[in-house]
Please model this.
Amino acid sequence: MLAPLLAALRFLTVLPIRRGAEFDGMHFQAGLFFFPVIGLGIGVVALLTAALVGPILPPALTALAGIVVLAAISGCLHLDGLADSADGMLSSRPRAEKLVIMHDSRIGAMGVIAIVIVLLGKYAALGTALPARLAVVLLLMPLAGRCAIVVTMALLPYARPEGGLGLLFYSNNTRRAAVLAAGLWLVVVVVVVPLAGLGPPALLAALVIPAAAVLLFAAWCRRSLGGATGDTLGAVCELSELMAAVALTVGG
Model:
């Protein structure tokens, strides 16, 4: 159990954990089960950051601090996937050429625009949240993102015929991991949202809006690319974080 957890931690975060790193390839598939748990841990770090700086910074800067923590702790891995996905999927090229564009490490105009929109959306949602709601949003955003990765993997095959980094996490247990991820999201939302004093509209929004975003994005990936790639899994993580923030901000 420890080796898959550490392998997933090394992949999803920049934490300097070296023990057993040379054997990570053997544990990636089992590590997928820990993605939501790691997301929840990242949320705790973001929440504690907001609690620490909140008393001395205005709400807008507290929100910015939370966003920086979420990006930094993952090494901007998912933002990079968002940019590559936008460059490829928003082009008018055939499927094979879209995959080539996404493989290019250089960022294009569409990628820059996508990153700006998503980060501005997060900032707008967090910057307008009351302190109690801000803490809940920061806790749930990274959980939503990592759950979305696992669910999207269960919904879509891997799109690159030559394989890729994301394929290392696929296995016969991917759907089981997705069911557990969705179950954890449901339980955490049902418990945490009412405890934060948020009403049924916020609870419903938190359950429906991120799920709808995942399903719509997965459908787009299937139509555009024939499945998922490592880049689109990063993109769905970022989009789900944004949708969770929006849902909990606009919910009553």
